[in-house]
Amino acid sequence: MPKTIAVLGSALFFAVAPTTVAGVVPWWISRWRLQAPFFDLQLIRWFGVVLILLGIPVLVETFTRFALQGGGTPAPVAPPQHLVITGPNRYVRNPIYLALVAIVLGQGLILGNAGLLVYGALLWIGFHIFVLAYEEPTLRRTFGAEYDTYCANVLRWLPRLPGSTSAGL
């Protein structure tokens, strides 16, 4: 896929999927109304801010890498032609999903909205099922030994620290 098409496809998919998952649905659940902080601790709101500030750049960078390095998009209909194992993918196999869950949970903590926390948990469960049932088998068929080596060194959900090695989860 030409780089221009990959970039445009990633931008379009970004405008639809993450915006819906981490923007439209959380708004629908919460109307972004501020409630009392959990356990009456304002500090919890700041933890939510940190989750969002960590999630957004990971999301943007990973989408960009899929287009520029992978030659495709994160969307299953136009997948990357090359396995992306740099940037956030160097530390965790599913940085886009983790970023989206972090953003949703962050909103829940900031707003004091338990419904958003439940949505974040259900979102992660849905991502996990999708990864196990579709994504990993597809990547294994597409990239073979390269993907197996990647899985042996990078965890599915828990980011590893720079310089450390880990067995796949």
**What share of residues is helical?**
55-70%
Q: How many beta-strand runs? A: 0
CATH class: Mainly Alpha
What spatial form do the alpha-carbon principal axes imply? Answer: globular
CATH topology: Four Helix Bundle (Hemerythrin (Met), subunit A)
Radius of gyration: 17 Å
What is the number of independent domains? 1
Summarize the structure.
The chain has helices at 3-30, 42-68, 95-111, 114-143, 145-153. It is mainly α and 169 residues long.
Tell me about this structure:
The protein is mainly alpha-helical and 169 residues long. The chain has a single domain (3-153), classed as Four Helix Bundle (Hemerythrin (Met), subunit A), CATH 1.20.120. It has helices at 3-30, 42-68, 95-111, 114-143, 145-153. α3 (95-111) runs antiparallel to α4 (114-143) and α4 crosses α5 (145-153). It starts with a helix and ends in a 16-residue tail after the last helix. The relative contact order is 0.15. The mean pLDDT is 94.
Overview features:
169 residues; mainly alpha; Four Helix Bundle (Hemerythrin (Met), subunit A); 5 helices; 66% helix; 0% strand; globular; transferase; Phopholipid_MeTrfase
Itemize the secondary structure elements and their pairings:
Elements (H helix, E strand, L loop, with lengths): L2 H28 L11 H27 L26 H17 L2 H30 L1 H9 L16
Helix pairs in contact: 1-2, 1-3, 2-3, 3-4, 4-5
